[in-house]
Amino acid sequence: MKKIYGLLIFILGSLMGVSCSDDGYTPSTSSVQVSSAETSIDAAGGKKDIVVTGVGITASAQDSWLNVNVKGNTVTVSADANPSRESRSTLLTVKASNGDSTLVNVSQYGMLFVLKGGNVYLNDDAQTIRVGLKHSLTVRVLSAPKWSDITVDKDSLSITVNDNNLGHWRSGYVKCQTGDVVDSFLVRQFDFNKDLAGEYYFWGYSDISSKATQQAFDAKLVKDNGQVRIELPDLGLSIPAKFDESTLSLHIYGGQYMGPFVDETSSDDPTPVTRYVWTMLWDENDGYYTWSSDYGLVGQFNYDETDNLIYTTVLKDDGAWGDHSATSLIMGYFTSSSVCSESTLVTTGYTYLTSIAYPRLQKIAGSDAKSLKSK
Is residue 248 a contact partner of residue 241, using CB atoms and an 8 Å limit? Predict the structure, then answer.
């Protein structure tokens, strides 16, 4: 029993000795310390100095884009222009002759290239405009429309164009490069009244079947006080429309008042009666129709250089009508010129003036008018 007790005393004493010796431990400190440093390099490139302590200093970078030069206790780091929008960083290892070392993180900003405003839409007049531009590297113009002159300044990009007298709009892309980044934007020269307004055919088909017959109306595309409409002079009616200049698209919605029209009451009753015509959309596949102004048909204007022809694509359902898809425009009869609703919808006799499946517009170019374009 005394032997066991003595053994415990010995072990405890040994542990206490180790504990006491640990209390006197002092961790070593590297002789290489950073005294002052600038470690962020501009996107355009440049040099930064890092001053360290220690003897026999050498340094190296983890990545090849960072150049390193050592003179005494000053480590100079440098980089060429960063060709990417992304910033980059690397580790710099600084060593002394006694083997001590330290790590320094060095970064470089990504290059800046911001064109304010995006695509550029101009009227047909000769003009020079400046578009705000922010860039940290040299910007080169790789390509541009032949009818434009593009110059890059310190904080802007200048676009010069001559008068557009072609009788149609013209557009093209300006492609620029800075660093490794290539970007482009659209330049369009357009005037609604000069390039788009005028005489058209408003045409389509009697229905969506394979036996449908083609039907066409003389039409005039007009813009007054910002309001666009398709006039149908033979019917004394007009279709209100919306025009999006950025996409050159035409939108016809349901529930738009076209005007009054005198028609026979029915096939059995020739008595003249005044009806009020409103636009309606018809899904001929499912047999549904609507006069809601939330739904519409939309098509885009195109220019065919070969035929010198301006036309719209087929005015198709704009996707807002849920499970239905409008195929046709109905010129529906109502009993009111101010309210288009179920209570004013004509439901007996002649209930509509006409319907046009797959409607579209094609401009009439005077004596050069072509046959109706089936696109």
Answer: no
Nearest to 219 by CA among 240, 198, 191: 198
Q: Which two tokens stand for residue 68?
A: 């390193």
**Under 8 Å CB-to-CB from 299, ≥6 apart: which residues?**
249, 250, 312, 313, 314, 315, 316, 360, 361
Q: Is 2 helix (H, G, I), strand (E, B) or coil?
A: helix
Of 260, 264, 276, 295, give the one whose Cα is nearest residue 340: 276
End-to-end CA distance of the chain: 110
Q: Write the DSSP symbol of residue 345.
A: B
Amino acid, single-letter form, for residue 18 = V
- CB of 260 closer than 8 Å to CB of 274: yes
Output the DSSP codes for 325-336.
Answer: ---EEEEEEES-
Point out the least confidently predicted range of 33-37, 46-50, 146-150, 342-346.
33-37
Contact (Cβ atoms closer than 8 angstroms) between residue 197 and residue 188:
no
**Is the C-alpha dihedral spanning 28, 31, 33, 35 positive or negative?**
positive
Question: What span, in angstroms and rounded, lies between the C-alpha atoms of 305 and 301?
Answer: 13
Q: Cα(212)–Cα(209) distance, rounded to whole angstroms?
A: 5
- At 167-220, the pLDDT tens digits run 999 999 999 998 888 889 999 999 999 999 999 999 999 999 999 999 999 999
Q: Is residue 26 scored above 60 in pLDDT?
A: no
Q: Which helix (H) or strand (E) holds 12?
A: helix 2-23
3-state percent breakdown (helix, strand, coil) of the chain, nearest 5: 10, 50, 40
Pairing of strands 328-334, 272-283: antiparallel
Residue keyed to tokens 């580790």: 91
Helix (H/G/I), strand (E/B), else coil: 134: strand
The SS3 assignment for 158 reads strand
Q: In Å, what is the CA distance from 211 to each residue of 179, 205, 208?
A: 59, 10, 8
The CA distances from residue 76 to 48, 51, 56, 67, in Å, are 6, 9, 15, 8
